[in-house]
Amino acid sequence: VNDGETVSYVKVSLMNQRRAVKTKKTAVVAAGEEPQYNESFHFRPPPEMDGVHLTLQVHVASDSNSK
Protein backbone atom coordinates (compact mmCIF):
# COMPACT_ATOMS: atom_id res chain seq x y z
CA VAL A 1 0.00 0.00 0.00
CA ASN A 2 2.02 2.94 -1.24
CA ASP A 3 -0.50 5.11 -3.11
CA GLY A 4 -0.13 8.60 -1.64
CA GLU A 5 -0.93 9.20 2.00
CA THR A 6 -2.33 6.02 3.49
CA VAL A 7 -2.94 5.14 7.12
CA SER A 8 -3.91 1.92 8.83
CA TYR A 9 -4.89 0.44 12.16
CA VAL A 10 -5.79 -2.97 13.56
CA LYS A 11 -9.09 -3.70 15.28
CA VAL A 12 -9.08 -6.55 17.83
CA SER A 13 -12.41 -8.04 18.91
CA LEU A 14 -13.18 -10.58 21.62
CA MET A 15 -16.00 -12.67 20.17
CA ASN A 16 -18.45 -14.97 21.93
CA GLN A 17 -20.06 -17.15 19.26
CA ARG A 18 -20.76 -14.49 16.59
CA ARG A 19 -21.25 -11.50 18.89
CA ALA A 20 -18.50 -9.00 19.74
CA VAL A 21 -18.11 -8.81 23.53
CA LYS A 22 -15.36 -6.14 23.50
CA THR A 23 -13.55 -4.31 20.69
CA LYS A 24 -10.35 -2.26 20.86
CA LYS A 25 -8.14 -0.73 18.18
CA THR A 26 -4.54 0.33 17.80
CA ALA A 27 -3.35 3.85 17.14
CA VAL A 28 -3.45 4.94 13.50
CA VAL A 29 -0.06 4.54 11.78
CA ALA A 30 1.31 5.31 8.34
CA ALA A 31 0.64 2.29 6.12
CA GLY A 32 4.01 1.49 4.57
CA GLU A 33 5.26 -1.81 3.27
CA GLU A 34 5.63 -3.16 6.81
CA PRO A 35 3.61 -1.10 9.31
CA GLN A 36 4.24 -2.05 12.95
CA TYR A 37 1.63 -2.13 15.70
CA ASN A 38 3.47 -2.54 18.98
CA GLU A 39 0.55 -2.47 21.42
CA SER A 40 -0.98 -4.90 23.87
CA PHE A 41 -4.62 -5.33 24.82
CA HIS A 42 -6.16 -6.97 27.85
CA PHE A 43 -9.58 -8.60 27.75
CA ARG A 44 -11.58 -10.24 30.50
CA PRO A 45 -13.10 -13.34 28.92
CA PRO A 46 -16.67 -14.27 29.80
CA PRO A 47 -17.11 -17.05 32.41
CA GLU A 48 -18.35 -19.48 29.75
CA MET A 49 -15.41 -20.09 27.40
CA ASP A 50 -17.23 -22.17 24.74
CA GLY A 51 -17.14 -20.37 21.40
CA VAL A 52 -14.86 -17.50 22.56
CA HIS A 53 -12.22 -16.31 20.07
CA LEU A 54 -10.32 -13.21 18.92
CA THR A 55 -10.59 -11.59 15.50
CA LEU A 56 -8.01 -9.22 14.01
CA GLN A 57 -8.99 -6.80 11.23
CA VAL A 58 -6.53 -4.55 9.40
CA HIS A 59 -8.14 -1.31 8.18
CA VAL A 60 -6.46 0.84 5.51
CA ALA A 61 -7.66 4.30 4.43
CA SER A 62 -6.32 6.93 2.03
CA ASP A 63 -5.85 9.38 4.94
CA SER A 64 -6.83 9.75 8.60
CA ASN A 65 -10.16 11.41 7.66
CA SER A 66 -11.34 8.56 5.39
CA LYS A 67 -13.63 5.82 6.53
From TrEMBL:
Highest taxon of source: Eukaryota
One Pfam family linked to the record: C2
Gene3D superfamilies: C2 domain (2.60.40.150)
Record-annotated C2 domain positions: 6-59
Signal peptide: none
Official protein name in the record: C2 domain-containing protein
Organism lineage string: Eukaryota, Metazoa, Ecdysozoa, Arthropoda, Crustacea
